[in-house]
Amino acid sequence: MSEAPAGPVSRVERAARAGHRAAVVWITGLSGAGKSTLAYACERALFARGCGVSVLDGDRVRHGLCADLGFSLEARSENIRRIGEVARLLYESGQIVLVAAISPLQADRARARALIDPADFIEVYCRCPLEVCEERDPKGLYRRARAGALPQFTGIGSPYEEPAAPELVLDSATVSVAAEVEAVVAELVRRGILA
Q: Which residues does UniProt mark as catalytic (predicted)?
């Protein structure tokens, strides 16, 4: 009987078993732009294809791993740093990781990108006009921000830096979720992450 190779299981070995490479799809955009909706729809589509896939939803991470953080720019940077580190761990385990987080600062998104092999990181800008996000306002956050109850709310009292060169730009105000999912899956196929 031959011995198993020593050392940790590599991403190449994990990809061979899973039938796909690991990747991080980082979905950024304003609150209400459709990031979580897109992430969960992609998760469902990839799961149906037999992929190992996980979602890191910014809201859910905020209530658990990052519950100790406030909303200053420094705290937001730490929030994104933590999400990036968890995404890296899941990526190294062979998962396709879908991150849905406002991640308002370009420097924080660049730091997350630097943790992942460049061939396996896809930044998706869920572009949606502020007025449309405010109309959607599923949690009433824009209304509260406009009333002064949330003074550091992204897009109102705190900056959102649009991505300089994302791999995908999806106009969530005009494009269906199904079309957005198709675009993400097509990019994963184009890169050879999916067969």
A: 103
CA dihedral sign, ordered 11, 17, 20, 25:
negative
Binding-site entries for ATP = 29-36
What pLDDT score was predicted for residue 12?
Answer: 86
**Which of the following is catalytic: 10, 72, 93, 103?**
103
Any domain includes 3: no
**Residue 183 amino acid letter:** A
CATH code of the domain in which 126 resides: 3.40.50.300
Binding site members: 29-36
Whether 103 is a known active-site residue: answer yes
Alpha helices in the chain (DSSP H): 11-18, 35-48, 58-63, 73-92, 106-113, 130-136, 141-146, 177-190
Residue 140 domain flag = yes
CB 170 within 8 A of CB 127: yes
Per-residue tokens: 3: 């011995």
195: in domain: no
pTM equals: 0.92
* pLDDT under 50: residue ranges of the chain: none
Cβ–Cβ < 8 Å for 155, 30? yes
Q: Nearest to residue 106, comparing CAs of 73, 62, 64, 72?
A: 73
Residue-number span of the structural domain to which 162 is assigned = 11-190
